[in-house]
Design goal:
Blueprint lengths: L23 E7 L3 H12 L8 E7 L16 E5 L9 H9 L6 E5 L3 E3 L3 H11 L3 E10 L6 H9 L14 H9 L18 E5 H7 L10 H11 L3 E13 L3 H4 L1 H13 L6 H4 L11 E6 L5 H11 L7 E7 L16 H10 L5 E5 L7 H5 L9 E6 L8 H11 L3 E5 L5 E6 H9 L4 H8 L2 E5 H9 L1 H16 L5 H20 L1
Parallel strand pairs: 1-2, 1-4, 2-3, 6-8, 9-10, 9-12, 10-11, 13-15
Antiparallel strand pairs: 4-7, 5-8, 6-7, 12-14, 13-14
Helix pairs in contact: 1-4, 15-16
């Protein structure tokens, strides 16, 4: 990251760079679809970004009829035949393996059924010339029919007649509404990752390598999961409204939504904690939890610890990993069950040592500084990290604290009781960015995201007051109501309301 930035903020009105210097590798993974690929390559040849800085790599992922380079194409274009094997096939594997061997400043990933406006790539690149922590999305519209040839398409794009190529088109309503609602992902909340789509996106090559590319075990939906990791990394995701494109025909999801959802939802839910509704359908544990909780249990009882866990996981579909800090070595010393000075600690260990969601970290006696506490948090894309003193002398509701953290848009929100017991919640995007800047992680979270400390009494008054409950209810109805675009969506909304009311009544 070249310049520390505040939250997801970014410059307004960036202009196309007049003398660009960054090289671009255009990555196109395809299996069949020669006709659409020919049109794509014509639009790539028409790009205004300097030709000498562009290289195109077409990955043929086992097409029945081998893909060929068309006549109209960028001068530096190459086909790579990806050799399939039983455990080595598909877009994620092919893309990861090929891109690992490509050198360029920026990777631009595009689908083979796209056509781009003349300045599409130039609009991507203005962001990458500004900083290292951008992932840029092009703006696309879908078209059902087209009758132009690659030559005609090339000529129209070069002549700035891109918008005249189609008089009828449509966009993804929910996608566009999400972008609009979040001020183009400057305020993305926690579901901003859903706006990341794979038809046309770019990022610095060093960022792609840091993330490790796509998850290889995902056959489809890999862009959604990548968007989650980008968001958790604190990357600024930019949907550029000036980077125009046409998507030729319906998307695979639109044509096969039921089958795609059946395949994708459980696979993606393994890695994306925000998919709570999917996770709530199963009692199994998931690869990435919703919360990572560090608890100093040196002065904690088992009942207090279980109370903290119960309050945190009250919402179906949530999961937590717990890191318990104490002088665990003392349990190896000789003792008597009668009058055991470590009875509470021993009881915690005896009950929880067999549970995979609990791990035990050794610490020495003495007070823990906040910088030391933060070192126990992992780099995994877990949205919320929580710390709480085990002897927190009030009922600690971690769910309420993380809800407040998210709504406040701070990187960290902490609580302190009258007895000076501490608890705080840390947002992973803020943590991830702070760790790239060096120095004090806590100070960098404050500088780039914001830190807020409250007394427990003030927080409790805010989080349980009638005004707060009304605000949360109104925001819920607004958020969920915007998802209704069909009778089936309305039915889902009604069922959700009934479930919430039923849960409240039982409680």
């Amino acid at each position: 990251m070249s310049q520390p930035t505040y939250r997801f903020e970014r410059p307004a009105g960036l202009e196309i760079v007049r003398k660009p210097k960054l090289t671009v590798a255009v990555i196109v993974a395809c299996r069949g679809g020669q006709e659409k690929l020919d049109l794509l390559m014509a639009s790539l040849a028409a790009q205004s970004y300097p030709k000498e800085l562009i290289s195109v790599y077409v990955i043929d992922d086992g097409s029945e009829s081998a893909i060929e380079l068309p006549r109209i194409k960028p001068s530096k274009s190459k086909i790579i035949r990806y050799k399939n094997a039983p455990s080595k096939w598909g877009k994620t594997a092919a893309t990861n393996d090929v891109v690992a061997k490509i050198k360029a400043d920026v990777y631009w990933f595009v689908d083979a059924d796209m056509i781009f406006d003349k300045d599409h790539l130039a609009h991507h690149m203005k962001w990458h010339h500004d900083g290292d922590d951008y992932a840029v999305l092009g703006w696309k519209r879908f078209v059902q029919e087209w009758n132009y040839t690659p030559q005609t398409a090339f000529e129209m794009i070069v002549a700035h007649k891109f918008n005249q190529m189609h008089t009828e088109s449509w966009g993804k309503t929910l996608w566009e509404e999400r972008v609009q609602r979040t001020q183009d992902l400057i305020h993305p909340a926690l579901d901003g990752y859903r706006a990341f789509v794979g038809a046309t996106f770019s990022m610095k090559s060093q960022l792609w390598k840091k993330l490790g590319g796509y998850r290889r075990d995902l056959i489809t939906g890999e862009d959604t999961e990548l968007g989650w990791r980008l968001f958790m990394e604190g990357v600024r995701i930019v949907p550029d409204r000036e980077a125009l494109s046409w998507h030729l025909g319906y998307s695979t999801v639109e044509l096969n939504k039921e089958e795609i959802d059946r395949h994708n939802l459980p696979a993606l839910a393994q890695y994306i904690p925000e998919m709570k509704k999917v996770r709530a359908q199963s009692i199994d544990s998931w690869k990435i939890p919703t919360y990572e909780v560090v608890i100093d249990v040196r002065s904690c009882s088992l009942s207090k610890l279980l109370e903290i866990r119960s309050n945190l996981l009250s919402l179906p579909g949530t999961q937590a990993n717990f890191i318990l800090l104490a002088n665990w070595r003392c349990l190896k010393e000789r003792y008597s069950p009668v009058g055991d000075p470590n009875a509470d600690l021993r009881e915690i260990y005896s009950w929880l040592k067999g549970q995979s969601s609990f791990s035990f970290k050794e610490i020495s006696n003495g007070n823990l500084g906040i910088e030391e506490i933060i070192t126990f948090f992992s780099d995994e894309p877990i949205p919320f990290h929580i710390y709480v003193d085990g002897n927190f002398d009030q009922i600690f509701d971690g769910k309420a604290l993380t809800d407040y953290l998210l709504s406040s848009e701070n990187g960290c929100v902490g609580l302190a009781t009258k007895q000076d017991r501490r608890a705080f919640a840390l947002f992973h995007p803020a943590l991830a960015r702070a760790r790239t800047l060096g120095g004090s992680t806590y100070k960098e979270v404050a500088n780039t995201w914001g830190v807020l400390w409250l007394t427990f009494e003030d927080f409790n008054a805010m989080s349980t007051g009638s005004k707060y409950r009304i605000k949360r209810t109104v925001n819920f109805f607004k958020r969920e109501g915007k998802k209704i675009n069909s009778a089936s969506q309305l039915l889902i909304f009604i069922k959700k309301i009934v479930k919430i009311l039923f849960r409240k009544i039982l409680k």
